[in-house]
Amino acid sequence: MAVTKTPRKKPASIASPEEAAPVKAVPAKKVATKKAEAAALEAQPEAAAVAAPAKKTKAPAKGKAPKAAAAEIETAMVATPEPAPAPAPPEAVKVAPVQTPVPVRLHPIVATILAAIQEGRALEFIFADADANAPRTFEPRSLSFDALSQAWFVWGWDRRYNAERHHRVELLAEANEVEGVGRAAQGPYADGTPANQIGGWLGGEPIAVKATLMKQWVFAVKQAPPAFPGFKLEDQTDGQALVSFAATDLRAIARWAMQFGDGIQVLEPARLVDRIKQVGAVWAGRERLAAAAPAPRPASEPRRHDSRPPREARPDREPRPEREARPDREPRPEREARPEREARPEREPRHDRDEAPKGKPGKVEVIRFDRL
Predict the structure, then answer these.
(1) How far is CA 46 from the centre of its chain?
(2) Beta strand pairing status for 241-247 and 232-235?
(3) Burial class (CB in 10 A: 0-12, 13-18, 19+), 158
(4) Contact 253, 272 (CB under 8 A)
(5) CA gap 190, 229 in Å, rounded
(6) Which of 114, 123, 204 is nearest to 157 (CA)?
(7) Residues 6+ positions from 216 with CB-CB distance below 8 Å
(8) What is the tens place of the pLDDT at every residue in 323-365?
């Protein structure tokens, strides 16, 4: 039979309603959890103070003194903190109005050229000044906007001159579509060849090109658009690259190769190497002639005696005193007059010799030697 011990009663002034109630057996698990909660509340006194009034207090027993109830009320009032003031509403953040970007209005000819490049078509250019620039069939290859001149430029093959050309878009009055490949198209070319890549690139006899590009130009060529169809760039040792492509215009190929100066070595074809050598020889000859020729003297250059301004008399400078004759020096004797020479007698003619008739002098031949 279980025997329960009743705890001793404390004075009424410090008695609490929990202690007045009979003590029940509490499992060990609940005791451990309560101890953990009490330790957490001690670590956070503010949370304990806020959680204290949330507990429900039991009504005092009948035999409890009124002083115990008054003490309990005072303890609850002290433990209950004052309510925190309501947070002030956040100030309205001023948001700058979003400015809508101004739409860029492209010239209608720019849109026509861009569509022709994408679809591989040739165009007919009609210029505003028809007297200076006649109409022509043009194969557009690229379209660019220049930041310095603030203008649009189209680059491609001009069939009027059979050469590469740049044209300023704002000088064009019209850009019309061409049916088929258009006039002055080079051939033969494979079926299905785009009409804007016939002249200079895929029309006529193809020229296979191979060249070695030096290290300082490899990155720049990789970042730029290909200059010709079938353009390949293969990396090699020492940072160099092997360039290979095919085109039909030798002038365009030579201009492309010569833009790199000594940064490229052309391997084939041989006629491309000969053409670059010829252009280099002409350039060197011009420089040599310009260095050998003396600089022309300008006609307006003043002469030496005219360039010097006349000397002005200085008032602060005193005139030099005349030299006085020195007594120690003897005067120079005057030169004696030379006696006059007697006139020579006239020579008598000599009749002992027959006078021979005077003949014409002999002819002298002058031989000129040209420099070899």
Answers:
(1) 64
(2) antiparallel
(3) buried
(4) yes
(5) 14
(6) 123
(7) 263
(8) 766 667 766 766 766 777 777 777 776 665 555 555 566 666 6
The token pair at 31 is 């005791």
On whether the CB atoms of residues 176 and 124 are closer than 8 A, the answer is yes
> Amino acid letter at 53?
P
* Local confidence band at 288 (pLDDT 50, 70, 90 cut-offs): confident
To 5 degrees, how large is the angle CA 96–CA 102–CA 106?
A: 165
Alpha helices per DSSP H over the chain: 17-20, 28-43, 45-51, 66-79, 108-119, 215-223, 250-258, 270-292, 304-307
As a whole number of angstroms, the distance between CA 165 and CA 117 comes to 15
Contact 164, 140 (CB under 8 A): no
Task: Give the type of residue at 122.
Answer: A
Domains identified in the chain and CATH numbers: 108-183 (2.30.30), 200-287 (3.30.70.240)
Q: Which amino acid, 170?
A: E
Neighbouring C-beta atoms of residue 129, cutoff 10 Å: 8
> Phi/psi zone of residue 68: left (φ > 0), alpha (ψ -120 to 50 degrees), beta?
alpha
Q: Which two tokens stand for residue 62?
A: 């009948």
Q: How far apart are CA 164 and CA 156, in angstroms?
A: 6
Percent of the chain at pLDDT above 70? 53
Confidence of residue 280 (pLDDT cuts 50, 70, 90): confident
Confidence of residue 190 (pLDDT cuts 50, 70, 90): confident
Dihedral sign (CA 105, 108, 113, 119): positive
One DSSP character per residue, 1-24 reads ----PPPPPPPTTT--HHHHSPP-
Report residue 203 as tokens. Answer: 């029309």
